[in-house]
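Cont'd.
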Amino acid sequence: MFSKILIANRGEIACRVIKTARRMGILTVAVYSDADVDALHVTMADEAVYLGPSPSRDSYLVADKVIAAAKRTGAQAIHPGYGFLSENAEFCRLCADNDITFIGPPVDAIEAMGSKSAAKSIMEKAQVPLVPGYHGDAQDEAILKQAADDMGYPVLLKATAGGGGKGMRQVWQAGQFSEELAAAKREALNGFGDDTMLVEKYLTQPRHVEIQVFCDNHGNAVYLFERDCSVQRRHQKVIEEAPAPGMSETLRAEMGQAAIKAAQAIGYCGAGTVEFLLDVDPSTGRSAFYFMEMNTRLQVEHPVTEYITKQDLVEWQLRVAANETLPKTQAQLSIHGHAFEARIYAEDANNDFLPATGTLNFLQAPTESEHVRVDTGVLQGDEVSVYYDPMIAKLVVWDENRDKALQRLAKALSEYRISGVTTNIDFLYNLATCPAFVEADLDTGFIEKHHEQIFHNGPVQDNQALADNLVMAALYLVLAKANTANKKALLSSDSNSPWHQANHWRANEANKQSLSLRPELGNSDDTFDIEVEHLNNRDGDAATQAYAISINNGTVIKCQGSLNSDQLLTTINGYRSEASVHINKTSTDDVITLYRQNGAFNFTQLTPDLGDSDSQTDNGGLIAPMNGTVVSVLVEAGTEVEAEQALMIMEAMKMEHTIRAPHAGTVESVFYQTGDMVDGGAELLSFNVNEQE
Ligand code: ADP
């Protein structure tokens, strides 16, 4: 076995490979670009080598630099992850020339599968069933069109060098052929520098079912069952699961054998995935599967297979690359339970899945357990930059059957909390809880077909839920304000101050307060005027306060609430629920997020009038951007400060954050000391802004 390997990748997959290597006692070398100097994969690895500027073409894709990094550190093998250089035959060759083991298949296998057309010809010879189509060399438009006319419309045009859904166009009738071909060729030329096309029968409601295969250098080959990846957006996977629902043992074995045949036809070695479309044969009414392509690397969605087979596929890759035999035979492999993977992306599902960038101001993943696994490469405070794939994490869940696993997926999604960057978490939650998904009525058009059920703004479209969210938001603001006032008072030197009373009496809280809240509701900018009346309940539970709240002068809602750091507990008309709260401070507004079981509710407070005329927060109070520890307090009460002067330094998730004065002024009070733990959203210090400012 190797004693040191280099991982020629970044993000979650680099971290994931490091974990297995470490468990096996293998040292790891990370590589990084400018954007990734402080990235998790770099801190996790034993050593790290700088490659170059942030764009991947200047760093992660420069084969020579990666090889030089391996030589410099004495790494004996390179794990390419997925993407980047993982299916690059030239890189594979370069490794061999430098006596470095490429943890992947032989170069010939990569080359054979590099072109979709060539791959199909090989599979045809090996008698692996193909989607009917044309994959010949002749590329005249007339020949391609004749092939399409012969097989009948709709057809799918695909770039033979394609990937990632690019260079792929549907043609629904003969009249559109010419135009679509030109468009597909343009896209292919731009994307891959090669506009060779193949034409396939377009299957209108297939499922994407792929088989995980593994081969070693000693003639052994096994399949580790299937994954259903039918739920796709723009022909790219969103949620994957294993095993595929409704698979008969016969079909599973047939597809597994076909996949092994495909792998053996190209002398395969290592981890590979054979992708099939699964459809109903109209002539027989039986399931039929067709080879689509083979991916000669570890797939993004490999964790679902790991869960159901209880195997570590990266360990298998390392063993095979070190010339060992496969860890298990086919007879020793079996399926345990059911697993799902949801890809958490920084993207706007409501805006055509546009990738999003920004800082992950708040990041709280569900707790990992035997049922929940989170593969990620980012920490709170990290940037999602424009340079790389916007995947934040893979949320993987397991249970003994599909229903239970799906319930775990929905719960884990509702517990995934991210602020600062737009994510697809609400979309994934809607998808995972949509009745057709629960019923496993899957095909590759799933998202379009169930558009209405999936693209809704969660509970806020329903008036009742909106009212509950607004009441919770109002309770939060009132309670947070009262907590801050009490904390401030407790720090005062006057021990006779009424603030020192340990009862529930709230400082600075007027009996009636008005708030104006603007929830984020899709396209609507509606604001809501909210009246909050504090009902005297001095005899009740000290932590819980009672209020009467009305929205836009409507019916009065009786409610109670308590706030313990960022945990809000409310009872609204007898409905008791919890939320955790995060404040995302931007240069213009503070966006407040209530994370509830059924999703996140974002709102902005427009006129902060809480009956406290000398509100420190408005004047220049400073709020902790996240949970963390105070590492240094640079000022004291009375210190005069300039705008932008550093006041306090906090540390969160191994990153330091400097709290700076937003204006010139005088520090009034400092609420925390060095070493204190602080909750995100807590007021750290207050100061008075200079008059002339
Ligand atoms: P890429 O390599 O660009 O990702 P693939 O060939 O793997 O492209 O196909 C991606 C997806 O496109 C498949 O999962 C499937 O949803 C759809 N697709 C591909 N070929 C066909 C086809 N012949 N009929 C219907 N859908 C197809």
